[in-house]
Amino acid sequence: MPLILAGLILLFGSFVQGAIGFALGMIAVPLLVDGGYSLSQAVALTTLAIGIQVMAGAWQLRDHIPWSDVKLAALVRYATVPIGITLLLLVEDVNGSDVKPLVGIGVLIGVAIRLVAPHQLKRDLPLTISAAAFAISGVLQGLVAMGGPPLVLWMTTRNFRARQARAFTMTLFLLNVPIQVLLLLFLSRTMSLEVVATALLLSPLIYLGTTIGVRAGNHISKPLLNRLALAVLVVIAFNAIF
């Protein structure tokens, strides 16, 4: 049952992320925790799922990767992801019913940032502001596998084309996976090679969900998909909190 549950959750999360370009972590982590996985197991499964999903995409978009921005973001995230993992290890000893509200609040913050982001003006940010956004992204990625919202907000201040934006986030997520999974394997008491094997076993479902999501996104208006996805996230968040 845990394998079937994880498969259905990652299938759904991959579908949503394939359709609108974000939200796999925001969907999968709270649902996996609600389904009985520890927070570190949920984060690890989701991180591996994101890695599997973006591997092919980053390769296909390799000619559009804005390396000058990726280098700074990757360096900052490499320094801050371990901070998030440290916080994760501190809270994973807490009772699961106490952890779920934390995850739910994180989802609501992510939804709020996603709603605000499209209304930001294009402008050049000071280096310190950019570094702060990447640092927050790294901490959230390590803590609850939700490093996307700060990146989305930061990207609204750049003149990225659509392919550049997708290549930017995909490359950062892909670069993040090895260090996050290795740290969890060595440091977390509830993380094991079985969790890694589970993610690999479920990779066909992750690929299937992504493929269907991308096709759905091509046939349904983006505003409608965004509203539907955000509505689902809010329901998941309130379910985790209450």
Q: Could you characterize what this model shows?
A:
The longest helix is centred in the last third of the chain and has 26 residues, at 162-187. The chain has one domain. 81% of the residues lie in helices and 0% in strands. The chain is mainly alpha-helical. The model has no long low-confidence stretch (mean pLDDT 83). It has helices spanning 2-20, 24-34, 39-60, 67-91, 96-116, 127-144, 148-155, 162-187, 193-201, 203-219, 222-241. It contains 11 helices and no strands.
Q: In angstroms, what separates the terminal alpha carbons?
A: 24 Å
| Overall outline | globular
Radius of gyration: 16 Å
- Tell me the number of structural domains: 1
Structural class: mainly alpha
Low-pLDDT stretches are none
How many strands appear in the DSSP assignment? 0
Strand content: under 5%
Give the count of helical stretches: 11
Fraction in helix: over 70%
Summarize the biggest pleated sheet: none
Q: How confident is the prediction overall: mean pLDDT?
A: 83
What string, H for helix and E for strand, traces the elements in order? HHHHHHHHHHH
